[in-house]
Design brief:
It comes from Pedobacter rhizosphaerae. The protein contains 17 helices and 17 strands. By secondary structure, it is α/β, with parallel strands linked by helices. The longest helix has 24 residues. It binds GDP-alpha-D-glucose. GDP-alpha-D-glucose (GDG) binds next to strand 12, strand 13, helix 13 and helix 14.
């Protein structure tokens, strides 16, 4: 078994490359982005001869593609160029209007358009063609997420002995939900081209195995599927965060200044934080309704609590996201109008993103972090809050539907559909004695610190090597 996880070339493939693009004076500049996945995989693709393949994030005219290829190659990144039509149909269409809602159990939001599916197939094929040109015989391939479900099988067909891992960042639904998709068998056949398939939780693993064995001619023993002489291992790899980064940020001068600013004049007010991308899976409306319920039934907290709610713009060309934004605006407006006073407002609502330093100061200042998604593969915000609590105080309220709830059992766990449950949890959090906060936070911090994003990457890659070694030894017997 290979013990050094960076010693062999890994080809990482994801929908988006980990870069921010700036286009100024007809010139492209690419800045490596520092999202969770990019940080975790940094040790892999920034070192040695490993590479990352993906869409650069904008439509690049044909006559400028060579320039982009050269600039990205300097960062070990290789672009798959997509047209605006492809982005509309493959990404916004099939990925975000079929797979995203169905995998998050919101089946009535799905649009089963044949044109979306046709384009999803052809774009997965495009990713395969770019990858095959860059691939050498012994390379290890690691595919990320639901936009590329067909890619494992396309690559396997071309390279029968390739080492292929796949990780899905969003939930895998139960069979009864997945079976609704018209192209269900094609999707599953695509995925089982991989040697190792990873999900955040054991529940996702269970759902995938039961779905695959019901819909495909495969057998399963525990968490291994077999098809002919091929074996496919399916396991849980709960993703972590860069603990040191979030813990360290709160001690920098810049963040300390922001923390002082947030705290000034607010000694009597408890501060509740919520941070999400705009998405119907995140339970934003329900969270607001729970806060409204609290203000209605516990008027003693009027003037004593404030919610800071950051909603990061996302997918706003999809109609359901636009509707959701309007509903949030309206509900926030109603609650604030009803309960605010001249010098106090219950909800400080921001529809934009902030620099990481502001985020860090918010995490470090918030007495309570309220994370109540209807469904979430993992939810990294909950882990970032914990990593930012260097004094071991603060309370995390966490939905049982988030993958993170399986690890962070010392949070106050709630059912996000039960507004009374969320309200009660906020009341418990507001009154929780410091020693209890510290006991819970310490336990969660040690988990988030140990199972960080680098641990996640290393674990997946080592397991992929191990699975492949076992397969090879079975084939030579
Ligand atoms: C998908 C799955 C799974 C947010 N606001 C700002 C900002 N953020 C960053 C957070 C966090 C990330 O965005 C959000 O991550 P989540 O995990 O909470 O959610 P998704 O985006 O839906 O991610 C999810 C994840 O993939 C990983 O597998 O956990 O279940 O849905 O890192 O910090 N960052 C900055 N400014 C903001 O205003 N800089």
């Amino acid at each position: 078994m290979d013990t050094s996880y960076t010693s062999m070339k890994t080809v990482i493939i994801s929908n988006r490359l980990p870069v921010k693009i700036i286009e100024e004076n007809n010139e492209y500049t690419f800045i490596p982005s520092e999202g969770g996945l990019a940080t975790g995989l940094g040790d892999v693709y920034k070192n040695g001869n490993s590479i990352w393949v993906g869409w650069p994030g904008i439509e690049v005219p044909e006559d400028r593609q060579q320039e982009v290829v050269e600039k990205l190659a300097a960062l070990n990144l290789y672009p798959v160029f997509l047209t605006q039509d492809e982005i509309n149909l493959y990404y916004e269409g099939f990925s975000n209007e079929v797979l995203w809602p169905v995998f998050h159990y919101l089946v009535t939001y799905a649009h089963y358009e044949q044109s979306y599916w046709d384009c999803y197939r052809s774009v997965n094929d495009k990713f395969a063609q770019t990858t095959l040109k860059l691939l050498n015989k012994n390379d290890r391939i690691w595919i990320q997420d639901y936009q590329l479900l067909l890619l494992p099988c396309i690559l396997r067909t071309q390279q029968p002995f390739a080492t292929i891992g796949f990780f899905q960042h969003i939930p895998f639904p139960s069979y009864e939900i997945f079976r609704l998709i018209p192209w269900r068998k094609e999707l599953l056949n695509g995925l089982i081209g991989a040697d190792l398939i990873g999900f955040h939780t054991y529940d996702d693993v269970r759902h995938f195995i039961s779905t695959a064995t019901r819909l495909l001619p495969v057998n399963s023993t525990a968490n291994v599927l077999s098809k002919g002489d091929r074996q496919i291992v399916v396991e849980a790899f709960p993703m972590g965060i860069d603990f040191d980064k979030f813990s360290g940020l709160t001690t920098t001068q810049e963040v300390k200044k922001e923390i002082d600013y947030f705290k000034s004049g607010k000694n009597e007010v408890k501060f509740i934080l919520s941070i999400d991308r705009l998405d119907y899976s995140k339970g934003i409306l329900e969270r607001l309704r729970a806060l409204e319920l609290l203000l209605q039934h516990h008027p003693e907290y009027i003037g004593k609590i404030e919610l800071y709610m950051i909603v990061v713009p996302s997918r706003d060309s999809v109609p359901q996201y636009r509707d959701l934004k309007e509903q949030i605006d309206q509900l926030v407006g109603n609650i604030n109008a009803k309960y605010r006073s001249i010098n106090w407002i219950p909800i400080n609502y921001f529809y934009r993103s902030f620099p990481i330093e502001v985020l860090s100061a918010l995490y470090a200042t918030a007495d309570i972090c309220l994370v109540t998604p209807m469904r979430d593969g993992m939810n990294l915000v909950s882990k970032e809050y914990i990593a930012s609590r260097n004094q071991n105080d603060g309370v995390l309220i966490l939905s049982e539907m988030a993958g993170a709830s399986k690890e962070l059992t010392d949070a106050l766990i709630v059912n996000p559909n039960n507004l009374g449950d969320i309200m009660e949890a906020i009341l418990v959090a507001l009154k929780m004695p410091l020693d209890e906060q510290q006991r819970r936070m310490k336990a969660m911090r040690s988990i988030v610190e140990k199972f960080n994003v680098k641990h996640w990457v290393q674990n997946f890659i080592l397991r992929l090597n191990e699975v492949k070694d076992t397969q090879k030894s079975l084939l030579t017997k």
